[in-house]
Write a sequence for this structure.
């Protein structure tokens, strides 16, 4: 749904532009720094000479080691129901057991040498490379905390100035009509606590990128501003902890013969130099920004932090809600000041046009504004002419993306499986629809979000380490038990002894999940046989796993193709009805 909305917005914007291009600024433009400060202040830049020389050397050597070991891979991603190879080659390195999902592709971390883990690397050089990136991760965490602390101090002052000084005349006029109030009630602001800062900057992985533009047959042109060749198209980063920061270390290879353009009258960005591009999403009024990236530069992409506990937003929302509750939906006299202040603060913060006097409507609009602050900008990477590496450090959302999580899900599902002490036969503890639904959903998650995602990437991870093989074997063992549980559900619903209403409910939810499983199996089988998949090197070609044929069914309780099972259940439903 979201991707469809984005495509619609993109199409509309391009139609509005026609043959025209939006303006953008580079450091050569007089208003560049003013635009950066006013519209792109969440981009924090650190020049290479501010980074310790020893760290530069370690990190840059790690990039070259990974390239020498052929550990950068083009990902086979899925967009609009089609598979594409990314122009940029990547590898994910981070905390053991973490994953990162983008464009329907789940990448698995090559674990860095975290304390308490026994990780066998393919070579000592690979160990050193991963260790160097872990060191860089620690450094960027500290830098991000500093940047956020500075940003929070600035924002605290800005909020106070906006609500107390800039709107002073508006308040004075309205308070004459609405009544008096304590002077300092609108300027309360609680600093962000250390725990929140840590959560937003505790990077658990880094997505490394590599591209040699001169080896690319084709690079997409930037469509809105005419910025030239793009290595990475306009996007918001996916699968991150809400309002977390992203930190990027950039390294263009020294041995390249490509030099920056010396033309004084060059219009727009220098095409020989890599840039990060920024724009306000779906906005044709604000010029874009193209910031050059030189060897060893670092940039941080921060997100504004507004929470109920630590910002004026929460104070206002709570006050309005309390007034509304106490007056049963009406705005009483005692609430009038809070209401007026809240409306004007929102206007000052985000240019929100408020024409309503209904508190619930305004609260909804304000919540939307606060929630969407981290989606207001997009960025892209504009290719230069030299080969370039980057290390993009992220706080990946680990709520559903870690080995610990999926193993826990398996154990939860298997609680419904029991063994007879005499016959050793398997049986289910419960056939309640809710229990069956939960187990079958976990079954699908293990198969399609983990096993098939991992083997779809071939044997690429073995070039670095075999760490993931044991966890994947464990997951497959659990998955086989889940297949047994599916077969047991099928056996039970064939029986007529159950209460009819309960049986109907169980079959209905069971059937839906089997249909989804069948659809996804067909999709993954086709993806493994696509032209894009066949074009990959042998050790990176997707494996359709798990997979079995009729001849293998002696070891599997159900067929790979579930069409007949689904047809039987559909007939059973019709017969019962």
């Amino acid at each position: 749904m979201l991707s469809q909305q984005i495509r619609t917005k993109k199409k509309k914007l391009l139609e509005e532009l026609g043959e025209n291009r939006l303006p953008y600024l580079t450091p050569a433009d007089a208003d560049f720094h003013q635009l950066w400060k006013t519209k792109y202040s969440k981009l924090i830049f650190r020049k290479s000479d501010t980074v310790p020389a020893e760290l530069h050397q370690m990190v840059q050597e790690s990039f070259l080691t990974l390239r020498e070991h052929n550990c950068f891979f083009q990902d086979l991603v899925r967009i609009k129901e089609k598979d594409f190879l990314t122009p940029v080659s990547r590898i994910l390195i981070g905390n053991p057991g973490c994953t990162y999902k983008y464009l329907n592709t789940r990448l698995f971390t090559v674990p860095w040498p975290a304390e308490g883990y026994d990780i066998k690397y393919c070579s000592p050089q690979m160990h050193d490379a991963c260790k160097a990136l872990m060191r860089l991760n620690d450094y960027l965490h500290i830098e991000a905390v500093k940047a956020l602390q500075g940003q929070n101090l600035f924002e605290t002052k800005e909020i106070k100035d906006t609500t107390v000084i800039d709107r002073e005349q508006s308040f004075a006029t309205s308070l004459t009509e609405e009544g008096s109030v304590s002077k300092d009630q609108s300027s309360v602001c609680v600093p962000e606590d250390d725990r929140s800062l840590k959560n937003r900057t505790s990077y658990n992985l880094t997505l490394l990128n590599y591209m040699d533009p001169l080896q690319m047959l084709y690079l997409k042109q930037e469509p809105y501003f005419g910025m030239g060749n793009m290595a990475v198209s306009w996007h918001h980063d996916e699968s991150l902890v809400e309002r977390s920061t992203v930190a990027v270390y950039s390294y263009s290879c020294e041995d390249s013969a490509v030099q920056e353009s010396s033309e004084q009258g060059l219009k727009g960005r220098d095409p020989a130099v890599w840039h990060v591009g920024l724009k306000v999403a779906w906005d044709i009024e604000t010029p874009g920004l193209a910031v050059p990236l030189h060897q060893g530069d670092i940039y941080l992409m921060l997100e504004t932090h507004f929470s109920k506990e630590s910002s004026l937003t929460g104070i206002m929302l709570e006050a309005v809600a309390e007034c509304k509750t106490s007056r049963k939906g009406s705005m009483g006299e005692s609430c009038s000041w809070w209401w007026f202040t809240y409306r004007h603060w929102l206007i000052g913060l985000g240019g929100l046009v408020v024409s309503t006097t209904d508190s619930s409507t305004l609260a909804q609009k304000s919540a939307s504004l606060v929630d969407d602050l981290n989606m207001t900008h997009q960025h892209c990477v504009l290719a230069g002419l030299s080969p370039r590496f980057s290390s993009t450090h992220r706080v990946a959302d680990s709520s559903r993306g870690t080995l610990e999580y999926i193993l826990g899900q398996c154990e939860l599902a298997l609680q419904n499986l029991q063994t007879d002490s005499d016959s050793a036969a398997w049986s289910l503890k419960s056939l309640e629809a809710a229990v069956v639904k939960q187990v079958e959903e976990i079954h699908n998650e293990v198969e399609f979000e983990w096993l098939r995602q991992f083997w779809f990437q071939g044997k690429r991870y073995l070039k670095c380490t075999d760490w993931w093989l044991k966890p994947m074997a464990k997951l497959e063992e659990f998955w086989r038990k889940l297949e047994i549980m599916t077969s047991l559900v099928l056996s039970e619903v064939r029986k007529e002894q159950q209460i009819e209403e309960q049986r109907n409910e169980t079959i209905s939810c069971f059937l839906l999940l089997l249909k989804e499983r069948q659809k996804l199996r067909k999709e993954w089988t086709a993806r493994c046989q696509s032209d894009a998949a066949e074009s990959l090197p042998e050790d990176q070609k997707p494996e359709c796993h798990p997979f079995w044929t009729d001849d293998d069914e002696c070891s599997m309780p159900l067929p790979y193709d579930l069409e007949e099972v689904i047809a039987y259940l559909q007939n059973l439903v019709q017969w019962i009805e």
In short: DSSP finds 15 helices and 17 strands in the chain. The longest strand covers residues 82-94.
